[in-house]
Amino acid sequence: MRVIGTVGLPGSGKGELAEVARNAGVPVVTMGDVIREECRKRGLDPATDHGKIATALREEEGDDAIAARSLPMVERHLESNDVVLVDGLRSGVELDRFREAFGDDFVLVSVEAPFETRAERLLDRDRDDSDTDVEALKKRERRELDFGMGDAMDRADVVIQNTGTLADYRETITKLFEEGPEAVTEADA
Hints:
InterPro entries: P-loop_NTPase
Protein name: AAA family ATPase
Strand order of the largest sheet: 2-3-1-4-5
Shape: globular
Oligomer: single chain
Helix content: 55-70%
Organism: Haloferax chudinovii
Order of helices and strands: EHEHHHEHEHHHHEH
Number of helices: 10
Largest sheet: 5 strands, parallel
Pfam family, one: AAA_17
Number of strands: 5
């Protein structure tokens, strides 16, 4: 059994990593989906209220609220799969929650890229307003870093520098799933 978590700033490539995992048959638990679902339960628009609800959940249920809500989904997938991907950790507290639950079977991968590269990718993606507005992106980054994302990135077991071509990145991700985290080093990424 292995649970692989991802952390990274917006536009770093976490979504692409999750897509490659899905295509390889690896189940993906997306922590942002927990927040989007809570937005819908509260009658709010996930595109505009995501950050507000992420903050509210942490205030109401603790800093590890999103991780705690994700754990049962991960555990269900582990009943019939050897590997599960948890997409989008945001803090060291969430990292601690997963490491407490899965011990050495939990591996955190930090996906990293320079701000300009990420901003360009987000502009192409155009998923929400913060993707097209550089100032909104900076504000979103500050909010995520305030959650403790920098701590989680610093404590990652594996760092993938996603600065090359999409094909190179996909090759690195495939290596991660086929050969394991130990096969992916910073020199390879």
